[in-house]
């Protein structure tokens, strides 16, 4: 038996099915929601499906569910993409789950380009986030290592010199079979 999509995702599907395409529609990739007339969307569409008429609240919900804003579009158009949000595949949409607010804040800052370039590196976390410690996120050496991946190789990051034991706190409580790191993949 297939699992139903989350209520928010179900409302998005209803909206895309019943509202005029000149206001809100599927994006050309069939993995995105495209808002084509923001004024009419806020005034007429949002109140029919949600208990508010604030576009910022709607955007926040999209971010909480892992949708990414697509940049590089005309100013009048706003598009949000999600890997599991695919036209005609309701079963896959059950994989779209609400992200806790602290993790959603990092997701909303990421904007998805229309098309990645061939040389654009993609950082892939190769261990579960539960194994990472808050100290790891604040470690200057780790920040120095990740800066080229996060900000591009042209950005100079002024951080203290790395210490020899900069990864000790990550592996302190982990078993010997744990592997934590990043991998750069060219797409």
Automatic annotation (TrEMBL):
InterPro entries: HSF_DNA-bd, WH-like_DNA-bd_sf, WH_DNA-bd_sf
Recorded GO CC terms: nucleus
TM segment ranges: none
Compartments it resides in: Nucleus
Alphabetized UniProt keyword annotations: DNA-binding, Nucleus
Chain ranges of the HSF-type DNA-binding domain: 4-99
GO MF, any single term: DNA-binding transcription factor activity
Any Pfam family: HSF_DNA-bind
Coiled-coil residues: none
Keyword Nucleus annotated: yes
Listed SMART domains: HSF (SM00415)
Keyword Nucleus applies: yes
Entries under PANTHER family matching the protein: HEAT SHOCK TRANSCRIPTION FACTOR, HSF-TYPE DNA-BINDING DOMAIN-CONTAINING PROTEIN
Family, per entry: Belongs to the HSF family.
Protein name, UniProt field: HSF-type DNA-binding domain-containing protein
Originating species: Saprolegnia parasitica (strain CBS 223.65)
């Amino acid at each position: 038996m297939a699992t139903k999509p989350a209520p928010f995702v179900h409302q998005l599907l209803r909206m895309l099915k019943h509202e005029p395409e000149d206001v809100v529609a599927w994006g050309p990739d069939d993995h995105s929601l495209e808002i084509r007339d923001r004024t009419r969307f806020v005034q007429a569409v949002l109140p029919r499906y949600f208990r508010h008429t604030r576009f910022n609240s709607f955007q926040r919900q999209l971010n909480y569910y892992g949708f990414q804003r697509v940049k590089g579009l005309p100013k009048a158009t706003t598009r949000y993409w999600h890997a599991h949000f695919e036209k005609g595949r309701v079963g896959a949409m059950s994989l779209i789950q609400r992200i806790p607010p602290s993790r959603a804040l990092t997701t909303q800052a990421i904007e998805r380009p229309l098309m990645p370039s061939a040389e654009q590196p993609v950082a892939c976390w190769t261990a579960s986030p539960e194994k990472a410690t808050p100290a790891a996120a604040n470690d200057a050496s780790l920040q120095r290592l990740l800066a080229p991946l996060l900000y591009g190789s042209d950005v100079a990051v002024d951080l203290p010199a790395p210490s020899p034991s900069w990864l000790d706190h990550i592996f302190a409580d982990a078993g010997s079979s744990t592997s934590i790191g990043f991998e750069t993949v060219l797409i």
